[in-house]
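S2.1 Query sequence (HPr-rel-A system PqqD family peptide chaperone)
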Amino acid sequence: MTASQSTKYKAEPADQILVTPLDSLTLVYQRRSGITHIVAEPAPEILAAMGADALTADEVAQRLAAQFDFDSAQAADIIAARLNELADLGLVERCYA
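Output structure tokens follow.
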């Protein structure tokens, strides 16, 4: 198991962000920072799938695979990269075990 597979991520609480779809992009206003982020798929879907749970990239991929038609094992690396981008934006927090 690599460090990225064991790293859990926790999304910003739902009451602290305002998500607004805008054509092919989505605006995510973060109340804590006052910043509006412009994100594209699959970022909004990742945030929605996470809910209030701290999850690994594999766990997020499994949740998304249950909603959408794809192989979660193949998507885990892509999801991990997106989670790291969301963490850099401050929309998710890395939780190290």
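The longest strand covers residues 17-22. Residues 3-88 form one domain.
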